[in-house]
Design goal:
Elements (H helix, E strand, L loop, with lengths): L2 H23 L41 E7 L10 H11 L7 H12 L16 E3 L8 E7 L6 E9 L2 E10 L3 E5 L2 E7 L5 E10 L4 E11 L22
Antiparallel strand pairs: 1-5, 2-3, 3-4, 4-5, 6-7, 7-8, 8-9
Helix pairs in contact: 2-3
């Protein structure tokens, strides 16, 4: 349970105890009391009951990503034994067209080279790797993040292990302010154009597609910003598996 939720629960329990003690001190007999009138339940109203079904599926919001990483063999120790730099370099080599212009692609490739021994660590775009079972098979999966240049967007990738193969099951590039792992879900937070609001996108494992798929997209009020337009954040680039 998150610490914040635990603290709120503890405060609620403490408040309940104090109220109970106060009521007892005031000679409360403990008799049942009416809670007032109950709001009348309203059933959902179906709009346009004669609407004909569409002749084609809805436009897809997100496409599941599933691809074996070429050139990377998983050691006996599983995902924790895979070199994250090898994984990122293998993806860059396999999909040079997914990273914008040639200049942007080569800028990111050059930065990733700095992650190697002897490179300039301050220029390495690779973020700390995280390991958690997101697929439910009881083994740790690999979650990677690295910065893209010159846009400063963040690439988020999730990999699972099948035998000795490393399989990419999520790929998303976006302007992110935070990424969270909650249970077996991955949550991305992105800035909105309106001050005090953010987008929150949730990805979960789909056993049918054997990939992390889009589950929920929320537009949330997260601050006390004024409800006016601020300077828009950079538009997300086209990504292999998301917007």
């Amino acid at each position: 349970m998150p610490a914040r939720r635990s603290a709120r629960t503890a405060l609620s329990l403490a408040a309940a105890v104090l109220l109970s003690a106060s009521a007892a001190a005031c000679g409360d007999t403990g008799a049942l009391r009416g809670a007032g009138p109950t709001t009348t339940a309203v059933s959902p109203t179906r709009l346009w009951p004669d609407l004909r079904p569409a002749s084609s599926p809805a436009y897809p919001y997100a496409v599941a990503t599933r691809e074996t990483v070429k050139g990377v063999t998983v050691p006996a120790g599983g995902a924790r034994k895979v070199d994250p730099v090898d994984v990122v370099e293998a993806e860059l080599a396999a999909h040079p067209g997914d990273y914008g212009s040639k200049g942007a692609y080569h800028a990111t490739v050059d930065r990733v080279r700095q992650c190697r021994p002897g490179g300039q660590r301050a220029r390495c775009p690779l973020l700390k790797p995280y390991y958690r079972d997101l697929t439910g098979d009881g083994r740790a999966d690999l979650t990677l993040g690295f910065r893209l240049y010159p846009t400063n967007q963040t690439a988020v990738r999730v990999y699972t292990v099948e035998g000795r193969r490393l399989v990419q099951v999520l790929a998303d590039n976006d302007a992110l302010t935070g990424v969270e792992l909650a249970g077996r879900a991955l949550i991305e937070r992105s800035p909105a154009d309106t001050s005090g609001y953010e987008y929150r996108t949730t990805w979960v494992w789909d056993p049918g597609q054997r990939a992390m798929v889009f589950s929920r997209d929320e537009y949330l009020h997260v601050g006390d910003g004024r409800h006016g337009k601020k300077k828009p954040s950079p538009s997300p680039s086209a990504s292999p598996g998301a917007r």
